[in-house]
Each structure stands twice: as C-alpha cells, then as structure tokens.
Amino acid sequence: MAYQVMARKWRPSAFDQVVAQEHVTRTLANAVSQDKIGHAYLFCGPRGVGKTSTARSLAKSLNCVEGPTPTPCLNCKVCKAITDGRSLDVLEIDGASNNGVDEVRALRESVGYAPQEGKYRVYIIDEVHMLSQSAFNALLKTLEEPPAHVIFMFATTEPQKIPATVLSRCQRFDFRRIPTTAIVDHLNSIIAAEGYDVEPDAIHFIARKADGAMRDAQSLLDQILSFSEGTVTQAAVAEVIGAVDSDTYFQLMEHVAQSDSGAALWLLNHAIDMGGGIEEFFGGLMEHIRNLLVGTLPEGAAQIEAHDNERARYINQAEMFGEHDLLRMLNLVSEAEWTISRSGQPRVRAELTVLKLVHLPASVDLKRLLTALESSDSQSPPSGAKTPEQVKKPATSAPDSAQQRTDTSAQAPLADQATAPTATPVIQPASLESMTAGWDSLLKHIGEHKKSLEGTLGRGRPMGYVDGVLSVGLPKITSWDERTLAQEQAALIGLVGQFFDGISEITLIEQGQEQGQATPRPESAKMSTPRQQLQELTGIEAAAINSEPIIGALKTALNLKIIGG
C-alpha cells in the first residue's frame, strides 16, 4: 500500500476525534440524536481546524446503516465510502474551481435525485466564499427550500465574503484556533502510535509553528520525521523549517540585559545566515518577549505556551526585566517588524532594532520620580539652619571680624554662595543613637553631593546598626530606590564616612522589617538622578526642574493620564 501522509491518515472520522471543537461537535451530535437536522450548515474558521472533517463526520452520522446516530460505526459500506471519498451520496465540491453559475445550475438539477445508499444526499462545498455573486444568486432558492433528502454543508475561511442572503439560510458554526496544548497532546498520541522518538521541546516548537492549525502541525511532523534519523530535536525542527529556535532568543535577551551589543549583533547575523528569515526572526522575537511579559504577571505562567522546562526558563529570564521595559521592547519590535517588511535594507533595519533593544534605558515611573524629587527638596534644611561644622567649630576670630565676614557674604551674589566650599564635618563613632541624632545634618551633607541619594534616604530614618551595616527604614522601597542605592553605594559610604566612622555597607528595609531583611539590590543600574530622568523625559533643563510651575505642569499631565517613560 502506498504511503499515506499523517494529515490524511490521522484525519478525524467521527465527532469524538475532532480536536478542541467540542462546542461544534456536541451541538451537531445532539441535533442528530434529537432528530433536529438542519438543511444547510456553514462551518467557518481558520485553515486546518477540522471544518471539512466535521462535515464528513456529520454525513457519516446521517447515512450510517445504524443511523442517523451521533456515533457512526465507521466500518459499514457507507461509512467507508464516505471516508475514502467515493460515496455517491456525499458530493464534495471545490468552490474555487467550480465557482460559476453554470456549475451551480448543474448542482440544482442533481438535487432532485434520491440517495443511492444512505438516507440523505449531502453536498459539501469547500471554500464556498469563492463562488461568484451570480452563482450565489442561483443557489438561493434551492438553498432555502431543498428537497427533504438534501443537506448542504459549506466550509469557508472567510465568512465575511459570503452574502448575507446565504448566511441567513444556514446554521453557522465558528471553529476556533486549536490551542497549542491540544496540538501537543494530539501529536504525542500520534508519535506514540507510530513509534517515533521526539523530544518534548521539539513537539512544542512544532505546535507553536502550526499557529492553531492541526493539519499544519501534522504536515510539519511528517516532514521532520523524514529528515531525522534518530531522536527529533528542536534544533532539527528549526533547521528543516528555516526557523529560529528558542535558545537563540534566550541568549539574545541575556545580551540585551547585559548591554552587550556586539554579542547581540553576532547572534542576529548568525541566525539569519543559518537560514532564518529576518521577518521570521522578529516574529519569533515578538513571541519571546510576549512570553517574558506574561511571565511577569500574577498567574501568568499558565499563559506561556511552552514545555514545563522552557516555561521555567521564561519565568527566570523575566526577572531580569521590568514590566514597563518589556512593554516598550514589544512595541519596538512590533514597529520594526512592520518597517522591515517594507525596507530596502532589511538587514540594516534589523541590526538597528537590536541595538536599540540593547541600549534601551530602563523605564521611569513619572509619579515615583516626582515623589522622589519632592522628597529630596523637602529634606533641605531652612536657610538659617546650622551645619555640624558651624556648631562644633570653635570661634577663633574677633567678633568684629566675624560680623564683617557675615556682612560680606550677605552681599555676595547668590551663585557665589552656592559654589562656596563647606567645612569638613567632624567624624564621630558610629552608633544608632549618634546617627539618629545627626541624621538631618547628614542628609544635608549628602544632598550637597548626591541629590538622588538624598531623595531616597530623606524618606527614611536609621533603623539599625550591626557590624558596620547601617539599615535605613523606608515606608516603601521602590525599584528606583534600589537602583539608586546600588549605583551610588560606594559614593554613599564615602559621604557617610565623613560623619561617622565604621560604616561598611548601607541597606534599605521597609519599616516593620527586622534588620537583615533588606531588599536585594541589582548589581547594575541604568537609572540616573531624578532631575536627569525628568530632563530626558520632558526635555526640560535640569536647573529648571526645581521650579514649582514645572512640577505642577507634570502633575497636571499625570492627572490627564498622559503617560511618560
């Protein structure tokens, strides 16, 4: 016997064999059981999801020697003839090649003939939307009032092209895209029955590439089994169909997280040189970033269509990025995919997009940024407050000379006062009591050098000091706080060391936690100071961001739901 491809060999023969279309098969089975059989059915949906197979199954249910029955025997003469496509009572017509009015007239003349073997004469017209307008018009009267022994079954992938006059005369059933998990389960049953050895990751890769079409998945599996001599791997699948495997995307996103533009570009060009098309590459990259984005959401792991091991990899890699960062990446890749398909230099566009991903700055929450900015400004002491050096430094000059210096400084320009050097603070032994007492002065000293640190630490107070580790308690620790502290840790220890001796590390804890439960800090950060970030977002000069009108304008924008960052 000649070899039969899997798409034909494993084609559904009855309602219970149709995958993931229970809403259709259950309705049809109940209609047969209750003798509520319609005279015209319209099966709509994507390719390869079981439309024509369901029509054949319905024909078997109606014409089986044991029927009408929702469970045909599949072994009688009538059922076997329908399965083999040689039944005289079930006529399958290709709407694309028989779309003229003459063909429909011939059909109208044949509907008067009685069935030869079964109880019904069934007309299955595939791709019915290809019929011409004249052909549809010629069919209308017969479709509305056919003989009692005639049933029409139409299948189409484009129901919007069918005239409303035809739609109103049919019972419409919409077939759905088959979920990846259902395709995987069905392929596993085929592989087990055929005795092949296929890795789980390879099966999931085939199922995803099928894009909801079972017939496509079976055809791909057939092709890949012919290519592979031993165990079928995901790399073999990628080589056969010219796709990019998931490992490549995992490596690319690692290079993006590490800001390694050279490695990212090499990986892109290697994937293209190995046969993966540029549009194919970015289509897979969009799917990969989408899975990472879903992985950052609560209960999002169940929405990642992948094998369990690969799903865990998505969850782990998603921790390297923030939700807003992944949203921006997904938007960037989506726009690039559209641009590349119309570009005269698609490879250059692809490389440019990858470089943009590598150098994409971390996203900024504008509300948090304004809070940090206002907090840092509110921690500045009044203009008349004394610094520690003013309190502790003994008077060494005459009162008249001191008064003369005060008068002179009062008459000096404001810019000169702002740039005047400050005296070196007096270093005290570090203890929780001493640091609590001098906290405000320390913040002012830090703010003169690092405003971003003052904005973060200004919202908290010292909570503990053990073995050189100072714990600062904040009402809530944001990602901006963590990145700022990670970026400026060394500078902060140096500034605090000018006030208190013995500080080796500074950690952040949320108020109510015990010391030692500090939130882990990232090793690197792309964030800058609040004013620099606002300048990048708004284009406003950093010096002007202090003005109240600017802050008010930004708040108004936020209230109007204008999103920044």
Question: Structural class of the secondary structure composition?
Answer: alpha/beta
Mean pLDDT: 79
Runs in which pLDDT lies below 50 for 5 or more consecutive residues are 380-423, 514-527, 560-565
Helical fraction equals 40-55%
Architecture overview:
The chain is α/β, with parallel strands linked by helices and 565 residues long. 52% of the residues lie in helices and 9% in strands. The chain is built from 27 helices and 10 strands. It starts with 5 loop residues before the first helix and ends in a 6-residue tail after the last helix. Mean pLDDT is 79; it is low at 380-423, 514-527 and 560-565.
List the helices and strands and how they pair.
Elements: H1 6-9, H2 22-33, E1 40-44, H3 51-63, H4 77-84, E2 90-94, H5 101-110, E3 121-126, H6 133-144, E4 150-156, H7 164-167, E5 171-174, H8 180-194, H9 200-210, H10 214-227, H11 234-241, H12 246-257, H13 261-273, H14 278-295, H15 308-318, H16 323-340, H17 346-358, H18 366-378, H19 388-392, H20 399-411, H21 414-418, E6 428-429, H22 432-437, H23 439-449, H24 451-457, E7 461-466, E8 469-474, H25 479-497, E9 500-501, E10 505-510, H26 530-538, H27 548-559
Helix pairs in contact: 2-3, 3-4, 5-6, 8-9, 9-10, 9-11, 10-11, 12-13, 13-17, 14-15, 14-16, 16-17, 18-24, 18-26, 23-24
Characteristic terms for this protein:
single chain, Rossmann fold, Helicase, Ruva Protein, domain 3, Zinc Finger, Delta Prime, domain 3, 9% strand, elongated
Please outline what is shown here.
The chain has 27 helices and 10 strands.
